[in-house]
Design goal:
This protein has 701 residues and is of the alpha+beta class. It is globular. Helices cover 21% and strands 23% of the residues. The protein is built from 17 helices and 27 strands. The protein has five domains: 13-170 and 226-244, no CATH class; 175-221, no CATH class; 255-288; 299-558, Alpha-ketoglutarate-dependent dioxygenase AlkB-like (Jelly Rolls, Sandwich); 576-697, no CATH class. It starts with 11 loop residues before the first strand and ends with a strand.
Amino acid sequence: MASISNSEGSRAFYSHGKPVYLMSNDVEAAESFEWCRDMQKSVSSYGNVISGLRVGKLASPHELIDHSTICTFITDPKCKESTIMSREKMVRDAIEKKRVIGVLVSKDHASLVEKKIVLPEGEEWALMGAYVMTDCWKERRTGETEPHLMLRLQMVNTEDTWWESKAQSGAPTIGGQYGDCSSCKLPLQKRYREREPFCCRLQCTSASNPIDASNAPFTYAPEFLAATEDVSTVSLDDFEMLPPEPQLFSVEELERRLIPRTKRPNKPSARKEYQAGQASTREHEMSNRSCGYGIRLEAEVDNKWLQTISEEALIAECYFEMPFVEQPTPINFMNTPWEGAYVGIVFNLEDGNQIFLIVPTKESTNGSGGSRSRFQSIFSSLQSGALPVGRELIKKKQSQVPGLRSNHFGKNYGEPYNTVMETKTTPLNQQPRVLREVMDETVKIAAEVSGKDCRANENYLVAYGPNNYMDFHQDGEDDIKGDAIFSVSYGGSATMTFALTRDRLKGRIILQFPIHGNGTIVIQSGKTLNQKYRHRVDCDGIFRIVITARILLSAAEKAARDAQAKKKPKRKSKADELPDGKTNAGHESESERSDGESKSEANLKRRREAVEPAMPSEKRRRSATDEPSATPAPVDPPIATDPARMSAQTSNTPSFSTPTNGHPKIAYAHQGPRGGRSRTTTVVKLGDGKWCRRKRAGQSQ
């Protein structure tokens, strides 16, 4: 189980120093956790709708929570919310059907639970346990005609009970001490909301009536202020335990759960009207959901993008900076199979790089086999598990953070796409039919508008949840063969940003445009696009699906490339380096050398010519021939150390000599800066014809 950062705004109470997170779609509920942050044993909230609970970051929940933790949730029958996790349904399922009434989910993904979107991966997002109710109370309130139910829950998994809400006498202090109880004479505790004291001991006679204890009016109090009402406690064996993988509901099951039904009339005359009304209600309710899974395209995409939009309106939504990006131009779909189905614009960048933005029209979105039906089909496949996705290990970070995975879900089809993640792949011919249909059409459109070969041999499906995004990166991997990379998006909207990579302007944003999940196509075309620019994608919706296609090297092409990489050219040695720092390699061709002159002799000649203007005439005459003289010449005197003579001696002055071993030698005296440390560099021709460069540090001046 991955950890949750305790960022600003997180609400948790602590058990044995470990945080326990409660997710709620009610602000007031989150505030109540301010009350129980320091290892306090009671949690109450007023008007709360529970969305889920996530516990710590350790694998075993037994290490986090003991069996004496108290957690009571107040339910309000006046609540009219229709979510599957509503208060009324929690009570009904717990008392009548004795079923699970809550699930464990991630903190950032509570919104998915509210929309009944099944989270795709077991390792991170699977249901880790469930709430069941063991008993409940009716809270007594003066002047209230309807009682407020208060639930006591148990947290269970498939093995045993590992957390239970249990009120116990002598509960730890909740706040400070505020006097003594008038009945039991023990210190009073302080309520969260009104900051009014109350007695929290069950054995105290005033525990059920705080007015007797504090002589103060109250409108809110924790669980000890409720009078218990017997509800048969059931055994854990009677509850349906959730499996470790997400529980999936069929369309019919969701329809049964979410659409209220009225009693069927007995009279035949009223039966037809009832059936017609039921059909209309069902059609209306299901039209607001995508395949019955609680999400619809209109909830994720601005309505104007689901209508026919013009190229001018598309350009108005984009940001581009000239002269890095030219004025966008419309794409002409006339006399093509997609005339009237798509509108688009093209951004022209430097070096012939181009970015195409193509948006479906209303007819293409709502028509048979259009964007809406494709989105529903892909989304349903993800929810049912027919289209499995997962989070991949990030290879480069395993030594620093073992087990670190990507923040998005992915599935690769075709050639392996090697990135910073360990991406597993499935043969391209085994991809689901809906993906094949989407990418076949996208490939044809991309080839038509870009003029490039877009016969992709790899498709990468990525699913983003809330707060997931792809940071600045480049799609310039070595395995990419073609010049075009294209993608199609469904579901949540996003914003794509391009920035420069050059030194002085690195990070400068030059292009930004929206990507909406109605089947919008983005094509990146150009040989240097992923060298000169980086891009990132920020998701705005709660669930976004992207399919990206590339042309990658085949296994045979990769093997040939790797074999060629092993044949590296021989590394240049320092012996081939001239005194001015230039190399001898390629300096003079064989035809430019005189007949019978070896390469090493030619190198020696060039070295002499390079330093000849600075040589004294006597030394120039002495070294005119490449053959060593019969009598060894005297060696130059050492470098002057007298300050009066230092200015008269020129730095980098060479001296030629022939040592006793017969090998010619050139010595250079290099003076250090401002009369500092000097050194002598000697280039010696060895017996095998090779030159060797040696350095000897001199003494400080």
